[in-house]
Amino acid sequence: MPTTLREAPAKSPASDALHPSHSSGNESARTVRAPRGPSLTCKTWAAEAALRMLMNNLDPEVAERPADLVVYGGRGQAARSWPAFDAIVDSLRRLAPDETLLVQSGKPVGVVRTHADAPRVLIANSNLVPHWATQQHFDDLAAKGLIMFGQMTAGSWIYIGTQGILQGTFETFAECGRQRFGGDLKHRLCVTAGCGGMGGAQPLAITLAGGTALIADVDPAALRRRLKDRYLDEVIDSVDAAIDAAVDYAREGNARSVGVHCNAVDLLERLLERNITPDVLTDQTSAHDPLVGYVPAEMTVAEAAIVRAKYPDEYTAMSLATMERHVRAMVELQRQGAVTFDYGNNIRQRAFDHGYQDAFAFKGFVPEYIRPQFCLGRGPFRWAALSGEERDIFITDHEILRLFPAHESEYAARLHKWILSCHKYPDALLAGDFDRCEPKFRFQGLPARICWLGLGERHRAGLLFNELVATGRVAAPIVIGRDHLDCGSVASPNRETEAMKDGTDAVSDWAILNAMVNIASGASWVSFHHGGGVGIGFSQHAGQVIVADGTPEAAARLERVLTNDPAMGVFRHADAGYDDAQQCATRARLDVPMQDW
Ligand code: NAD
Question: Which of 362, 383, 412 is the last residue of a domain?
């Protein structure tokens, strides 16, 4: 270790999230798991759902590092500290039906009298005034325990494990296959890295889209975890042997995934040395966070933990230097013909800031593959069964397929393909034989499902679920939420709003309006965050979660929220000049006062 490294100041208890190898003292022994079943421990189902989903985020099956309250995405936390977690739980348990809990960066700071239709919780995480919105300023505050990184669904309590991102990742790779290879990804070698909370969905999504996956991760535990959860088929430690196996599988058209235990840069530079060009290339290491998310070359995870804790500035410099090499290798492979895209971790910006002028030679996945859906108000729609019973998810799966028949549209056909691919016995699901249904991929924590739905569809699904609760077909209420990565909820110029037609990539009014619309419409809890996905200074975004508890009041809220929330995506893209969004606004009879298109 270089002797010139400058030591970090002593860490405060609140900075545990910075030190992945350290648990929070005695708390490492603490196991959190959401209550299950139809009995309330809070005064309303909205508060109960918030409590269960907060706890579910920290379930060891769900969270990446629950002892440190870290859910996913580098250091995305559910609460600022264990005392803050306990205080949130306590507040939710006593929250009256006309009260709202205020959470500031993972700490409960107040309870106010509102009304029954208002959100039960309002959450603001990681927000800084733009001029001060730097990683350094954030880290200084975090070290003093004054702020917390909420990522997107960690601090807003609607992360549902890797499955949450699986469907979106599948959409991306399936769309890549359709656009670039005229069908699926069969016979295509897809290379990527980062097998963590979100990135761990990549190997399964690639194989579901027909391709062969080769994925590097520097942490063998991350690979083992995906192997156990059947998101990954095999792990090979030698880089050359892993490349050989993946090349063979791709040639045979074998949709199989290979994990390789190495730094991403070592895999890509070896591919270049061997003159092997992947068909598809991307990356989901936690490059948005050079200190905690990314591991520099020539360092093991254990060494990284030591250097990170003692010499954070030098660690960050080493990370950025490796990221530059990493992006250079990606651009080189792109020049050799690999279909290359950024997968939302801001690695291009890091390499660019480190002096690599061509870092933006490849585009982001949103303008490439996702924006057409955003124009229709389409985006992620997830739900969890508060009963804890898998059967409830099977019932909702069955009903959602009936609600949107496959022949109705290309998207409905994709929805069927996706939901059926989540089942070991699709025929049982179609027949409504729920005793015979089994999930193909393990549920993590509370049983949950995700799909993508658009404007005009989301509220119908919400009302359907409310009816299933009202009639007792499912055993307890259903909670419905979404990622902040959605059509009208985020400003992120290197990701969701990259290359907007009218150049409004960095305008965050839309994300703020989205949060306000969801509050006004009566979502159960609403969050506004900064820095998710791409890191501090690079994004602002909003989330909403709403509970279907079977009551008529919930039905009214569900209809409002699940109409107005996706409508924001249509307003946003119509205003930016996208024809599809303008036509969608007209078809859906959205009221747009100034149709200046
Ligand atoms: P994570 O922190 O849980 O996992 C990151 C993984 O990368 C870890 O397993 C780590 O060991 C590995 N890693 C770090 N540096 C590496 C290196 N140099 N070489 C090989 N492996 C390395 O994070 P996550 O939740 O999986 O998210 C990954 C990234 O994707 C984040 O930047 C996140 O913001 C972004 N993200 C993208 C989307 C999207 O839809 N595109 C969604 C969520 C998150």
Answer: 362
Q: In the structure encoding, which two tokens stand for residue 451, read together?
A: 């799909």
Q: Is the CB of 217 under 6 A from ligand 1?
A: yes
Cα-based angle 8, 11, 14 (whole degrees, multiple of 5): 140
- Determine, yes or no, domain membership for 25: no
Instruction: Give residue 55's Cα distance to chain centre.
Output: 17
Q: Which residues constitute the domain of residue 215?
A: 163-362
- CB atoms closer than 10 angstroms to residue 214: 29
Give the nearest ligand 1 atom to 533 CA.
34
Does residue 277 sit in the same domain as residue 307?
yes
Say if residue 319 is in the same domain as residue 244: yes
Quickly state the pLDDT bin for 283 (edges 50, 70, 90): very high
Residue 10 in any domain: the answer is: no
User: At 494, which CATH number?
Assistant: 3.40.1770.10
Whether ligand 1 lies within 6 angstroms of the CB of 485 is answered as yes
By the 10 Å C-beta count (0-12 exposed, 13-18 middle, 19+ buried), 472 is classed as exposed
The finding on whether 219 has its CB within 6 A of some atom of ligand 1 is yes
Neighbouring CB atoms inside 10 A of 435's CB total 7
Same domain (yes/no): 131, 219: no
User: Does 294 contact ligand 1 (Cβ within 6 A)?
Assistant: yes
> So which residues are the catalytic ones?
451
Average pLDDT over residues 210-227: 96
**Ligand 1 mean position, distance from CA 294 (Å):** 8
What's the pLDDT tens digit per position in 48-87? 999 999 999 999 999 989 999 999 988 999 999 999 999 9
Tell me if 84 is assigned to some domain: yes
Residue whose CA is at the smallest distance from ligand 1 atom 14: 294
Query: With DSSP H G I counted as helix, E B as strand and the rest as coil, what are the percentages for the chain, rounded to 5?
Result: 45, 15, 40
Tell me: do 152 and 233 sit in the same domain: no
